Amino acid sequence: MTLQPIRSEWDLLRLSLLFYTRIPVGQVAYSEERMGASFRYFPLVGAIVGGVMAGAFALADYWLPQPVAATICVIVGLVVTGGMHEDGLADYCDAFGGVHDRESTLRIMKDSSTGVYGILGLIVLLISRIILLSYIPSRVAIGTIVAMAVVARWMPILVMRLSTYARKSNEASKATHLRQAVTTKTLLLASVWALLALFLLPWQAAVAAPLPMIAQTLLVMRVSNKRIGGYTGDVLGAVECFGELTLALVTLIVVYQA
Q1: Rounded distance, CA 62 to CA 84, Å?
Q2: How do the pLDDT tens digits run along the chain, 258 residues long?
Q3: How many folded domains does the chain comprise?
């Protein structure tokens, strides 16, 4: 029995870690096709990131008040990922926060500077994360942190499956690998990781959270399709951030109702 298929899948996981975290994984052979296939492990990358964040939260929560532990957890997440999704959210807020045509919207998302809408979006995102994790009981928060990182990373894959990359082949792009189609195999494998992560939540939250997460993802996708004719990397980053907040909010509602 050859180990080549296992090594190939392992390299796809490392490739996803290389692009979407700051975790050192060594050199990995790159191609746009392999990068597209690596999305099947994007939620699993979330499990690794979420595990580090949850560990930081648990350690800090043992010695410090929970709001401080939540703050440390959020900071650790930013360090591990390099704030990639948050950068996408900021660009998305700048581009979609005003009334712009397609060309202006794409140009704003490509601009490296951050405007008022982007800054406000980041402030709301980070404060919301800290507040939500401060009020979810510690015993539930640890699993919620991991589930947030995993399930929210399935949402961009859904968008990529249902929509198309907005920038045309002759338009400059920093993320041309996003043009790669999400195959059925990639979608199914990514779904497995997301479904497993739901078991880390109270069962009521595991049942209730996916529907509003998918609904808001489809709404963002529809707005993006109408405005720019598809998605960009910044749109996907925003979708991931929105998904995290929704899952945490639903979990908080569940534990408070209980």
Answers
A1: 29
A2: 456 677 888 889 999 999 899 999 888 887 778 888 889 999 999 999 999 999 999 999 999 999 999 999 999 999 999 999 999 999 999 999 877 789 999 998 988 888 999 999 999 999 999 999 999 999 999 999 999 999 999 999 999 999 999 987 655 555 666 777 788 999 999 999 999 999 999 999 999 999 999 999 999 999 999 999 999 999 999 999 999 999 999 999 999 887
A3: 1
| Tokens, residue 85 | 């999704």
pTM of this prediction? 0.93
Domain-located, residue 1: no
Only one residue has tokens 């959020």, namely 74
Q: What Rg value do the Cα atoms of the chain yield, rounded?
A: 18
Domain contains 85:
yes
Q: Is residue 17 part of a domain?
A: no
Host domain of residue 201: 31-165+173-252
DSSP states of 95-111 as a string?
HHSS---HHHHHHHHH-
In a domain, 258, yes or no: no
| CA angle centred on 21, ends 127 and 192, rounded to 5° | 90
